[in-house]
Structure formats: structure tokens, C-alpha cells
Write a structure and sequence with these properties.
By secondary structure, the protein is an alpha/beta fold. It has 6 helices and 5 strands; from the N terminus they run H-E-H-E-H-E-H-E-H-E-H. The protein has a 5-stranded parallel beta sheet with strand order 2-1-3-4-5, sandwiched between helices. Helix 2 runs parallel beside helix 6. The longest helix has 16 residues.
Length: about 140
């Protein structure tokens, strides 16, 4: 059986993986494109029930999730924060600017970076730098 190194290419080794979850096409596809522009490999997970398993299996550098997609997104993010295999994973959660209650709920749940769509679109690079900052 031939040996297949992981990652498969040198380019993949240089590109960190960002795991994203979204259902709203406009902010989600823009986010994926922006992450690729910032030299991230992007893995979009479309089923919230697969998000925790995907985070464990793929070991991304960060996770970005749309809070408005479904009610269970926040509960899933809490499970990711509670699981020893994924609790180190920086999470950036976003929601429409006119839904501050979603952002407040995420912050109460321990998601440090919960921002509106406009902030995410304007300051993605800075948010990633802050989220990935290691003391």
C-alpha cells in the first residue's frame, strides 16, 4: 500500500485550515472567499450535527460559524468548547447586525469572538489575528 503523506502537498502545509459553518449564502460565501484570500484552506460544513466531529477529525486552526443558521449552532459551539479534543480551537461566531441577542448569547456561552456581519466583513484579518494570538 503506497504511503500518502498528510497534508498531500507542500502548499497545504503552508495554508492553515479554517472550518466554517453557514447557511446564509451571502455572508458565508464571502467569508470563504476572504479566508482563501488570506491563504487559508477552507472546509465548509453544511450540517451543524457534523460540526464537532469535523473539528475533531480535521483539526482546523480556527472555526467560524453563523449563529443565525439554526438554533442548535450555539449549543454545538458550546460542545466544541467543552470537549477536551477541541476546546483549544478559536471560534469566531457571527450574526446579522440587527440580531444583537444572538451575539450576546454567544458571549455568555464563552465564545470570545462574537461579531456582527459588518464587523466580520471589515475586520476578518484582525479578528483572526486576535483569535489566534497565543500568550
Amino acid at each position: 500500500m503506497p504511503f500518502t503523506p498528510f497534508p498531500a502537498t507542500l502548499a497545504e502545509m503552508k495554508q492553515p485550515l479554517a472550518l466554517i459553518f453557514y447557511e446564509r449564502l451571502m455572508p458565508g460565501s464571502q467569508l470563504a472567499n476572504r479566508l482563501q484570500d488570506l491563504n487559508y484552506r477552507v472546509l465548509a460544513v453544511s450540517d451543524v450535527e457534523l460540526l464537532l466531529a469535523s473539528a475533531k477529525r480535521e483539526q482546523p486552526l480556527c472555526l467560524v460559524a453563523d449563529l443565525e443558521a439554526r438554533a442548535e449552532v450555539l449549543a454545538t459551539l458550546e460542545k466544541i468548547k467543552a470537549d477536551p479534543a477541541t476546546n483549544h480551537l478559536p471560534i469566531i461566531a457571527f450574526a446579522p447586525d440587527d440580531k444583537p441577542a444572538l451575539l450576546q448569547a454567544a458571549q455568555k456561552a464563552g465564545i470570545q469572538f462574537a461579531v456582527g456581519d459588518a464587523v466580520l466583513a471589515s475586520h476578518l484579518r484582525q479578528l483572526l489575528e486576535q483569535a489566534l494570538h497565543v500568550d
